[in-house]
Design goal:
Helices cover 3% and strands 32% of the residues. The protein is an all-beta fold. It is globular, with a radius of gyration of 21 Å.
Length: 480
């Protein structure tokens, strides 16, 4: 059962397994299962997890990259196999070439409106055979179907050298037309931008891109989508930094043209949107937040080990509520704040699956020392209380977690959430790209309503029969 708000929450750090279980609660009504979960690429009712492996060798081409889809099903991830897709796979555009970095970013959404989740995949270092140019980058969509991801289309191409199109992706219905649109980054040495590919995306001609915003001598660090002002239309949150400027902003297209509806001087490395305080308004979490040296104010004065800023929403406004800062020194938060831990380097929203209104937050701390294991890593399941989060840290040395924390594992480098076992409770996945000499792996944690709690299991390349995996688990598919 979920912890009662307003009571002491210090108990959340007593047991990592207990912390993960508090996202449980009363069983969801049967009607809640009617809609297919986002991230279900084959329409079987289970969310699937896309793992980008951009540094993998494909066909002898180093860093060509591929995507591995771990299929959800009864019992969750790791029990139903996986499918590997590269540009050498039948039906997928392009050819695997050295340093394409196919799989650098992956985003799940129904991009053509057929009821199946599709997978947007970027190859930001793709060279498009234009004389005198290189690394323009491209974005592809692998189309979901009853038989899975069997075909793909090119949906965006860079138009100048070193544009690195698509290093970050997100999707949302920004113009309220009922179709998912795609937002993607373009980042070169002197100028950067966030671009939009309007939906519905199809197998036809590559749609023209339009600019949402841009910078000189700065660039975007992370994107996230969600309805941050309650008007029924998705907004775009982004955080950026560079030599000349930095900050975090929300952009809206509800009026027909893109406009900045909220901004703050702090920047970060990760973003997540959810209703963390259950008041009906969406909130914004900024991970690994850093102050703007040119500004007089900041969300987080103490940055030892990393910090997460929470900006609460308020009905009728964009992020008009109170703000707060959470670190590993915050009461009720597991772990110890130490320099360069990188608390909040990765974030994922655990959507409310028990119908009590509260979303939770997964936060990775990949450089956390676990005993003597430097950068062994951890992740934390966080719940909001007021303007702060509380929750216990999970490591590979925690009870019921597979494996042993070792130096350089980077457990928590990426996090994801989804109902991978179809029981109406949102489960957790975390990547450890440094595991097994940088072969990598993901750890899957099923969420139940009450004890006994299942073990957190390892899903590694060797268990999936993958050859030549490099830093598997560094890129996990997002759903917002």
């Amino acid at each position: 059962m979920r912890l009662t708000r307003g009571k002491s929450l210090s108990a959340v750090v007593l047991c990592a397994a207990t912390v993960l279980a508090v996202s449980g609660g009363l069983a969801a009504p049967a009607s809640a299962a009617a809609a297919a979960p986002r991230g279900d690429f084959n329409g079987d009712g289970f969310a699937d997890l896309a793992v980008g492996v951009p540094d993998a060798t494909v066909g002898g081409r180093t860093e060509a990259g591929y995507v591995n889809v771990v299929w959800g099903g009864t019992g969750g991830l790791g029990k139903h196999g996986s499918t590997t897709l590269s540009q050498n796979s039948a039906g997928i555009p392009g050819t695997s070439e050295a340093e394409d970095a196919f799989g650098r970013s992956v985003q799940a959404a129904d991009l053509n409106g057929d009821g199946y989740s599709d997978l947007a995949v970027s190859a930001p270092a793709e060279t498009l055979d234009v004389p005198g140019q290189a690394r323009e980058g491209a974005v592809y969509v692998l189309w979901g179907s009853a038989s899975g991801l069997k075909s793909g289309s090119t949906v965006a191409k860079g138009d100048h050298a070193d544009e690195n199109l698509g290093a970050a992706l997100t999707s949302g219905d920004y113009d309220h037309d009922g179709h998912q649109d795609l937002a993607l980054t373009a980042h070169s040495d002197e100028s950067s931008a966030v671009m939009e590919a309007p939906g519905p995306l199809t197998t036809g001609a590559v749609p023209p891109l339009s600019k949402i915003t841009s910078w000189h001598f700065a660039g975007p660090n992370a994107l996230a989508s969600g309805d941050l002002n309650g008007d029924g239309t998705d907004d775009l949150a982004l955080t950026y930094s560079g030599m000349e400027t930095q900050g975090t902003e929300v952009h809206s297209k509800a009026s027909g043209t893109w406009a900045t509806t909220w901004s703050a001087p702090d920047t970060g490395s990760a973003l997540a949107i959810g209703d963390f305080d259950a008041d009906g308004a969406k909130d914004l979490a900024i991970g690994l937040v850093r102050p703007n040296p040119e500004a007089d104010t900041t969300y987080c004065a103490d940055l030892t080990g990393g910090a997460i800023a929470l900006v609460l929403g308020a009905k009728g406004t964009t992020l008009g509520g109170a703000t707060g800062c959470t670190t590993q020194s915050t009461p009720g938060v597991g772990g110890t704040a130490e320099p360069e831990d990188d608390f909040g380097a990765s974030l994922a929203t655990v959507s409310d699956s028990v119908h009590d209104g509260y979303d939770a937050l997964l936060a990775g701390t990949p450089h956390e020392a676990v005993g003597t294991a430097k950068a062994g890593g951890s992740f934390t399941y966080l719940e909001a209380t007021g303007t702060h989060f509380v929750g216990g840290a999970i490591t590979q040395n925690s009870s019921q977690v597979a494996g042993t924390a070792e130096a350089g594992d980077l457990f928590g480098a990426a996090v994801a959430a989804g109902d991978y076992d179809g029981d109406q409770y949102t489960d957790a996945a975390t990547g450890a790209p440094g595991e097994n000499s940088h072969s990598g792996g993901i750890w899957y944690r099923e969420t139940d309503e009450e004890p006994p709690f299942p073990d957190t299991v390892a899903v590694t390349p060797s268990k999936l029969g993958l050859a030549g995996a490099v830093s598997y688990g560094a890129v996990l598919g997002r759903r917002n």
